[in-house]
Structure formats: structure tokens, C-alpha cells
Amino acid sequence: MTKILVTGGAGYIGSHAVVELAQAGFEPIIVDNFANSETTVLAGLRDILGRDVPCYRIDCGNAEALHEVFRKEGDIKGVIHFAAYKAVGESVQKPLAYFHNNVGSLITLLQVMKDEGVENLVFSSSCTVYGVPDQLPVTEATPTKPANSPYGRTKQMCEDIVHDASKAADNTTHTILLRYFNPIGAHESAKIGELPLGVPNNLVPFITQTAAGLRDKLTIFGDDYDTPDGTNVRDYIHVVDLAKAHVVAVQRLLDRKASDVVETFNVGTGHGNTVLEVVKAFEEASGQKLNYSIGPRRAGDVPAIYADATKAAEVLGFKTETSLRDSLASAWKWQVALSK
After folding, report:
1. Could you say which DSSP state residue 233 is in?
2. Which pLDDT tens digit goes with each residue over 64-100?
3. C-alpha closest to that of 177 among 194, 193, 195, 165
4. Which residues contact 276 (CB under 8 A, 6 or more apart)?
5. Which long-range contacts (CB under 8 A, 24 or more apart) does 139-146 make?
6. Ramachandran angles phi, psi of 190, nearest 5°
7. How far apart are the C-alpha atoms of 340 and 323, rounded to whole Å?
8. How far is CA 78 from CA 1, 62, 109, 122, 216, in A?
9. Do 229 and 276 contact (CB within 8 A), yes or no?
10. What is the rounded CA–CA span in Å between residue 202 and residue 242?
11. Residue-wise pLDDT tens digits, 208-262
């Protein structure tokens, strides 16, 4: 089987990608420092796949440790780089930590890949690179504007680094940049899902924890945006759909079908939902009445953003399959499983 290194593979999106890679016939190798994930995820992966997935507890900023993984495993054909800090609000409070971790780890990884002769990279980017767009939906050709948060700036910087590195005379790396929108939900088995440490920074786990009684109420950050109901609009994609996009991207790189040394794709559903629409859909999907209130706007939040997913459909042959309601139902199923 073809070995694919998955950095941050014990995290939310990474763990689901590990499942999809394995079920597609690849051999995923996890690297994770468990700064924002739990070792219990490995047991969930074992339950789903019926076997253990190799996992190395190291930091992606540690070049020596990364070299050791490549040399021990041998013949790794590609890397999916998820490992990063990812909370917009937290990045406003801890900008230096975000720049150091997100930008530094990519630079280290690219150098190690070059040294080890590994040529294929799928990079976990974000729709935050678009800043506050002038028009919606955003396409891959939409100009990137100043990011609203340090997190978004790290993703812009990382994309720039990938492009600049690709122009080097001795470059052999081929990269696909996947610009995510808002992943939600959990695996149908309820063995893995979003597992934030401490207070959730993302909407859906805060919703499910509130419904489960772990939080007193959900605070919606602002209801005075220029959107249909005044709350933020986002493009919510089921995490398994997102994970499947990575398998398609990896295969495209391995088959040398990429049209350029760096390709970029939006990965979203192609339409947006307001926060209040998500709350209503969750209540319908779960049968739970949610306690929520309106609070002030949160620093770093973009009013509205959602994807034009045409390029992913036409070039990658990828389309999302899961509805918002079904995605939220899977998130609630996961929360219930955690409470048992």
C-alpha cells in the first residue's frame, strides 16, 4: 500500500482523512503532538478500521524527529499537512503562537520533504485567505484581501511560501492547496468526531455541548451583520466529505494529473447558512431545544463567506454529499456517544 504521512492526523479533520485514506487503499502514517487532540482518537480509528494506525507523537517543527519518521517508515509517497492552530478568535489573542506554529511547521516540513525526496503535498488551507470578499460566492480566482485574523494571515503566508518554494530551480514538490470552508459533523460510527480541548472555539461543538447540558447557553456573536438574519454566514461542509476531497487530491498528485506545480481548490458545499439557520437545523435534526442569546461581535470574524465549488467539481470530480441537517445529526450522535 502507498504510504501517506498525515500531520495532525489525530485531530478533527485529520482523523477523518486517515479513515478515508485507509478505506481507499492507502497506508496513512500519523504525526501529531497532541496539543489539540486526544489519544483516545487512536482507539476510535482502530474500532473503525479494525487495526492500529502508526502514530508518532512529535511536533512538526522538529526537523530531526520528522526526518526520523520518514527514514523509519521508508517510501512515503506524499504528505497531507493538517497540523496547525486553527481558532480565529484565539489567534487574535495569541498571534505569535499562531505564526510560530503554523508558518514555522510548514517551512520545516517542506525542507524535510525536500531532503527526503518526497514530492507530493496536500496543504490544509482556509477560506480565511479571502479576507472580507467584495463578491460572493468566492472562486479560486477571487483576490485575497487582508485577512481579518492572525490565523487567516498564517494561511495566506503559508500559501505564499508554497508558491515561492515551487519556483526554486531545484524544486520537485507538487502541491494542492485545499481552501476549506467550515467542517462540521462526525463519522457515521460516532467513533471519531470534533473533540475540542476546553471551551470550543467552533460553532457546532458549542451547540452540541450546550444541548447536552455541558454549557449553559450558546452565545451568537452579533446579529447586526448585513446578512439575511443579521448573523454570520458560513459554508458548512460535512467533515467526511472534506476528508474524501483529500483522497481525491492525493490521488491526483500521485497520478501526475495536476495542471501546475501548485493547484488551488475551494472545498465547500457552494452555499451559505446563517448561524441562526444552523441553530434551527440542529434543533430539527436532534429534537433538542437550544438555549442561546445574542452577544457582541467577535474580533476577527468575517460577516459572510461561502464557496463557489465549481472548480473542484469539474477538475477533481469532487462534490459534497451530506446535507446540513444530516451533518448536524451526526454531530449530535457523536456528542451523545461522548456522554455515555
Report:
1. E
2. 999 999 999 999 999 999 999 998 889 999 999 999 9
3. 165
4. 220, 223, 229, 231
5. 139/266, 139/308, 139/310, 139/311, 140/179, 140/264, 140/265, 140/266, 140/311
6. 60, 30
7. 26
8. 12, 19, 12, 8, 44
9. yes
10. 16
11. 999 999 999 999 999 999 999 999 999 999 999 999 999 999 999 999 999 999 9
Is-catalytic flag, 292?
no
Residue 286 and residue 330 in contact, taking contact as beta carbons nearer than 8 Å: no
Q: Measure the CA–CA gap between 10 and 23, rounded to whole angstroms.
A: 17
Beta bridge partners of 126: 180
**Which value, in Å, is the radius of gyration of the alpha carbons in the chain?**
19
- Selected catalytic residue, list 56, 98, 151, 306: 151
Q: Can you give the pTM of this predicted structure?
A: 0.96
Q: CA of 253: how far to CAs of 146, 161, 188, 192, 250, in Å?
A: 30, 19, 28, 27, 5
Q: pLDDT tens digit string along 19-72?
A: 999 999 999 999 999 999 999 999 999 999 999 999 999 999 999 999 999 999
Q: What's the length of the chain?
A: 340
Does residue 28 have a cis peptide bond before it, meaning omega lies within 30 degrees of 0? Answer: no
Cα–Cα nearest to 175, from 86, 270, 109: 109
d(CA 199, CA 196): 7
The number of beta carbons lying within 10 Å of the beta carbon of residue 164 is 11
